[in-house]
Amino acid sequence: MIVSHNLNAIINNMNQKNFFITTPIYYVNDRPHIGHAYTTVAADVLARWHKQRGEEVFFLTGTDEHGAKVAESAKKAGKTPKDFCDENSRLFRFAFDQLNISYDYFIRTTDDRHEKSVAKFMQKLYDQEDIYESMYEGLYCTGCENFLTEKELVDGKCPDHLKVPEKISEKNYFFKLTKYLPQVKKMIENDEILIMPKDKKKEALGLFKQDLSDFSVSRENVQWGIPLPFDKKQVTYVWVEALQNYISAIGYGDDRENFEKWWQNPFHIMAKDILKFHCIYWPALLLAVGEKTPKQVFLHGFFSINGQKMSKSIGNVIDPNDLVAKYGSDATRYLLLSQFPFGQDGDIKQEKFDEQFNADLANGLGNIVSRVANLIEQSETKIKPTGSDELFNNISNDISELRFHDAIKKIFEVISDLNGELQKVKPWEMSKSDVVRGEFLNKIASELLSVSKAIMPFMPETARQIEERFSKDTITKGTPLFPRI
Length: 485
Ligand code: MSP
Prior knowledge:
With 485 residues, the protein is of the alpha/beta class. The chain is built from 19 helices and 15 strands.
């Protein structure tokens, strides 16, 4: 029998008691943009959905604050690295709060707790001789915070950051990656580390065909970092400590019980740009220290803006706060996740947002909620709607497999059908005391309650308002959910 990824994912999701979900931790050299918002909203949908099913959830996000890139940006801004990080980390937290992200913990890699945990981890690797000293000579791209090979360059430049990488020659400590590669490969092959979607699993396995070699876990000429406990002249390579946020946040260094509670079934979400770190290096590091590897890694696509890469130099970076100010938090979440299937690459056309907001939210969901509530308010028969779980259950597989786009589509089809029915039956032409009118409105309002349950992970505030409006003893029209733009 061929067990599909999806089936595996569902079984995994169903068997778990605790759900630990993470986003990447974001570099603070930059302000938050909708790329960061996109991943974090997606993780929030999953976190809220698991909570809704009564599971215990721990949702982790945060900021990645060390390394040459951040130090250079701080210098440019005329600030100390710490002040610079404090300010920018706050911007991320603010943006995520604006988006109503229900994170349980916001980690900063400059947290004392994280630093201590990392030191412990590095010492363990050193003590068991999984790291050794060697000279490093090669090319380093500060934008990637990564070493590049000649082969990876395009016209002598890093293809992602369009900059000539720096030639580095220094003493470094290396991790014996090669020792753990066969085991990591096997675990990816048999889905013990479940990499989704399928094309990303293939991509990860493809990496084993290239020359994966031991990699440097320290930097000699960078000061802004966590010193290696066994050689204080070197700091831990920023990627190696950043990955450890996923375990330091739950108590790897100081709270074994809590760590074991959450490290049963970790689920990492990110975009495909950081696949190698999460699918190869991270599992290998964990195997080395004798811990479990992540169970599921989901790598979504990258989006462009009007066909172009989102970048400061092009000037097309979208600030999530601007979207929230214009559309509100729920509509921003909706607009971000409804553009293209999660997991694929896609394009975002901001000028279409107004149109979509008006069509789907103002004239669609918002309109039917107001109209039905208004008709019920005028009604002279008793109306007591009750929702069902049918729609929620219908989209259950879509959400557990992160097909958010499909789930949203199904919900909005129901909304559009309800609007159609209303248009056909025209209850406003019936007498306010007509029993048929009352029953019809009761049915539509009940369906709206079902919609609110299904839509909750995507649009938590809207769901709460719909629920509140139709659960009251006296139903009133209320204010519009989405005033037209
Ligand atoms: N600090 C590292 C991650 C360390 S995790 C242990 C990092 N930070 S980052 O700020 O560059 O964030 C990268 C992530 O931001 C991507 O993996 C993705 O989640 C999100 N995105 C950034 N731009 C994006 C798009 N244009 N499209 C989709 N996601 C985007 O890498």
